[in-house]
Design goal:
Order of helices and strands: EHHEHHHHEEHEEHEHHHHEHEHEHE
Structural class: alpha/beta
Number of helices: 15
CATH topology of the largest domain: Transcription Regulator spoIIAA
Number of strands: 11
Oligomer: single chain
Length: 387
């Protein structure tokens, strides 16, 4: 809100906090006692005219400066280097007085682009300038978005686990790579051979190397089948041994795994796989489904780069909000939003606001938040910055 007050001669040449160089006209120093003698009991307009030269109207809100706005738009357009150069220059000017907003934009830009050294070189200046703990380093450039599918694909392996299922395993690999996660149900496996065990193990390991989440479900029956075919000291069926060790990790049987690993080392005279704690598939799946159901009921997620080419996600947001009075939008995985999408978002949120709905955008990075502010989104929804 505008406020009335005097301004000292030394302050007149300063840029308002926040780096918004929207220059104010100079005003002569005013003695507070002079204002107190003005008579407002008569014609108020005459009184205001008398004091017009003794007061200065100053916007005390943070406002939006040219640098703030230009950097936000550059980043929205994908011009990351230009945005960084602009912010870096603004903060590096001798005698410049800029607000915390520009600092947070630059620090978040370093995090979004994985520039840890530059982040750490600036973060100390930030802490000194604002006398507070700086944001922690978090490499946002490596954050993986969630699978786009609403449910993790489920594949059932039935019958014989053998060479004849090679084509099915190739399909499983493609599905897992595409979705980033896959569930493989082993309940209906009735028979197996060593080559089939090798095919399944190869798919699981390749997906894990590519950081796709693999859940081997209902594996207890296959574990017992495999265990009946391995004999300590008999150098045969190496892939069967290895698949059994893999499945024991998914069923959470640590002691049994350790005993079998020792037998494997003695039998094949090589180091066995190391134990890696894997939450049992049945428990993990139940917990995951419950969590997803809860989140889908309460929160909408924006992630990755939202551009006009992928406007479908914003239409889904509008549909999601149509059934709720309070709408929470999780933006922790949202990296960038372009200008067109921000305008579309503003139109959607304006409509929701007119309908009396309350929308909160949570964990927004400073670069996206700057664009949302430029577009006026913060006037129709609550925008909360990430830590």
């Amino acid at each position: 809100m505008p406020s009335f007050g005097k301004k000292s001669p030394s302050a007149r040449s300063d840029t308002p906090k926040g780096g918004h160089g929207d220059g104010m006209s100079a005003a002569r120093p005013v003695n507070r006692a002079e204002l107190s003698t003005i008579d407002f009991s008569g014609d108020a307009s005459l009184a205001l005219a008398d004091c017009a030269g003794m007061v200065r109207v100053q916007e005390v809100g943070p406002g939006i400066g040219a640098t703030y706005e230009e950097a936000a738009v550059l980043y929205a357009n994908g011009d990351l280097r230009e945005a960084e150069a602009l912010l870096d220059a603004a903060l590096g000017e001798d005698g410049s007085v800029v607000g915390e907003g520009l600092w947070m934009m630059l620090l978040d830009l370093y995090r979004l682009t994985g520039q840890r050294e530059r982040f750490e070189s600036r973060v100390l200046d930030y802490a000194t300038r604002f006398e507070r703990s700086p944001p922690p380093w978090d490499d946002l450039s490596r954050k993986q978005t969630r699978p786009r599918s609403e449910a993790v694909p489920l594949i059932n392996i039935a019958g014989n686990l053998s060479r004849s299922a090679a084509e099915q395993f190739r399909q499983i690999l493609v599905i897992g790579q595409k979705s980033g996660a896959i569930r493989i149900d082993l309940k209906r496996v009735r028979a197996f051979d060593n080559e089939g065990c090798g095919l399944l193990l190869e798919v699981v390991r390749k997906l894990e190397r590519e950081r796709a989440k693999v859940s081997l479900m209902n594996a207890a029956g296959l574990v017992e089948m495999l265990a009946g075919k391995v004999s300590p000291g008999v150098v045969d069926g190496r892939e069967t041994w290895l698949l059994l060790l893999e499945l024991l990790q998914h069923t959470g049987e640590y002691e049994r795994f350790e005993d079998l690993a020792l037998d494997y080392a003695i039998t094949f005279e090589e180091s066995p796989p190391s134990w890696e704690s894997v939450e049992p598939a049945a428990v993990a799946e139940a917990a995951s489904e419950a969590e997803d159901a809860l989140r889908s009921e309460a929160t909408f997620v924006l992630e990755g780069d939202v551009t006009h080419a992928g406007a479908e996600i914003l239409r889904k947001l509008a549909a999601f909000a149509s059934e709720r009075s309070n709408v929470e939008v999780e933006c922790g995985l949202l990296r960038r939003m372009d200008f067109v999408s921000a305008g579309t978002l503003f139109n959607i949120l304006s409509t929701l606001r007119a309908q009396g709905k309350l929308v909160c955008l949570q964990n927004v990075n400073a670069m996206v938040a700057a664009l949302l502010r430029v577009m006026g989104v913060d006037q129709v929804a609550q925008v909360m910055l990430r830590g």
